[in-house]
Amino acid sequence: MAKKKQPQMSSKAEQKLKNKIIEDKTFGLKNKKKSSKVAKYVQQVQQQVNQAGNRKAMKQEEERKKRLEQKKKEEEKRKTELKEIFKPVQIQQKVPFGVDPKTILCAYFKAGTCQKGNRCKFSHDLNIERKTEKIDLYTDYRSNTGGKKKKNNKDDETMENWDQSKLESVIDKKFGKDNSQKPTEIVCKYFLEAIETKKYGFFWECPNGGSKCKYRHCLPPGYVLKKKETEEERRAREEAEKENQITLEEFLETEYINFKY
Fold it and tell me: What confidence tens digit (pLDDT) does each residue in 144-172 have?
């Protein structure tokens, strides 16, 4: 048979009972208000009696907080497990030859799993894909026309309407001392070095005067870059050459047979 639930005491009755207990415990003490020691003792009794009534409520509140905290931890654990289960498979990102990795968005960062932070060689800017495009090694980006000469109306001018000063300025412009700094069709050696060392990109700056460099910062049309040979590839090539190499005796024997027949 279930135990009968006792009716809860009202707050007014509870306080009245507390005052009665305090009065009983301090009964017979003289000079309650005059003696500091007695006053301190009375204060301690009051605190003990008041706290005794609130202990149960405090314990219930602590248990409620613990339950909420435990529930929160379990929810976070469940979310983490679901994230791990449905996490897409990440493949190792490859950088195209001649492209700056900082112009490519990190796939792990996009998925929210990159742990490298500032040490990551790829970009963590979500807008980088809109800001950049794949760099073209056959275009000189210093000119707005993509390295092509823009036709000018001055090209159609003739010498017929020129005066003496105009003629002198044209000659000086063509053969003067400043002519050595004019753009040429020679490809910049620093540009080629940057491609070989995989440093060339939209943020690369030429050591030879930056954008004022007179040499071309693009490859000639139709030119195919040769991939730099790695150590493993070099060893494999040398081994293949050794296998196909014949000795002097074998060569002489072959020549003798050819000569004989």
Answer: 444 444 444 554 556 666 676 776 676 66
CA 238 to chain centre: 40
**Cα-to-chain-centroid distance, residue 126:** 9
Contacts of 207 (CB under 8 A, 6+ apart): 190
Stated pTM of the model: 0.31
Q: How is the chain split into domains, by residue range?
A: 87-134, 136-149+165-228, 237-261
Which residues does 64 contact at the CB level (< 8 Å), separation at least 6? Answer: none
Instruction: Determine the angle formed by the axes of helices 36-85 and 11-25, rounding to 10 degrees.
Output: 140
Compute the distance between CA of residue 16 and CA of residue 170 in angstroms, rounded to an integer: 113
* Architecture of the domain defined by 87-134: Irregular (4.10)
d(CA 193, CA 188): 9
Do 256 and 248 meet the contact criterion of CB atoms below 8 Å apart? no
